[in-house]
Design goal:
Elements: H1 3-17, E1 25-29, E2 38-44, H2 60-72, H3 74-87, H4 93-108, H5 117-130, H6 136-162, H7 175-194
Antiparallel strand pairs: 1-2
Helix pairs in contact: 1-2, 3-4, 3-7, 4-6, 4-7, 5-6
């Protein structure tokens, strides 16, 4: 794997592991560069100021695991990971929302034909993320929270992209809602990296 690709896979792994602004210097491939074909510039891509990113000693093993899994799932989950990375370069919360929903569609609607995407996406995300709970009642509660929130986020994305009236119970696009949606996306990517083809039927409560 080329050095640049390894570097960006490592950056992606950090971003999947947890939220917080983490970026790197811009790297430009130059065949005439005697130092391995790479040049570093002082231009940052991403947010220089924002949420702090904290990597703990106990995170190293999980980070290494994510890094190794990324290489094997690029064909299946490449769009989701690319959209997560691109969201770090956005300056608009609405643009970040659009990136996140496209990533969710790649994760939960991969290979799907035309149909009711809003329900399928929110239902499947709710099932998968609620599976982290061990107690049935907590799992049901988590399912309702996740599926309802993602439905609102999906509706808001559709309104931003296509226009039209907003629903009465709409998602307010602010830093809190975007961070929450980003956390759901990271959890989804981690779970699907570890188990690419989960049987969502078995997750029903």
């Amino acid at each position: 794997m080329p050095y640049m690709e390894k570097t960006f896979d490592g950056l992606c792994a950090l971003r999947i592991l947890r939220s917080g602004d983490v970026s790197c210097l811009t790297m430009i491939e130059r065949p005439d560069n005697p130092f391995g074909g790479l040049s570093l510039t002082t231009e940052f891509r991403g947010h220089i100021f924002g949420q702090p990113y904290e990597l703990l000693r106990g995170d190293v093993g999980h980070l290494q695991s994510i890094y190794k899994l990324i290489e094997h799932q690029k064909d299946r989950m490449g769009i989701a990971m690319r959209r997560l990375n691109q969201s770090y370069e956005r300056r608009s919360l609405e643009d970040i929302l659009i990136d996140y929903i496209i990533a969710f569609e790649n994760l939960y609607l991969y290979g799907e034909g035309p149909g009711e995407k809003r329900f399928k996406l929110s239902h499947r995300a709710g099932l998968l993320l609620s599976s982290l709970e061990t107690r049935i009642e907590e799992r049901r509660k988590r399912y309702e929270q996740v599926s309802s929130f993602i439905q609102k986020a999906y509706d808001e994305r559709s309104t931003i992209v296509h226009g039209g009236p907003r629903r009465k119970r709409r998602l307010k696009v602010n830093e809190d809602s975007i961070n929450k949606l980003g956390d759901y996306l990271r959890q989804s990517i981690r779970l699907l990296l570890e188990n690419p083809e989960p049987s969502l039927t078995n997750l029903m409560f």
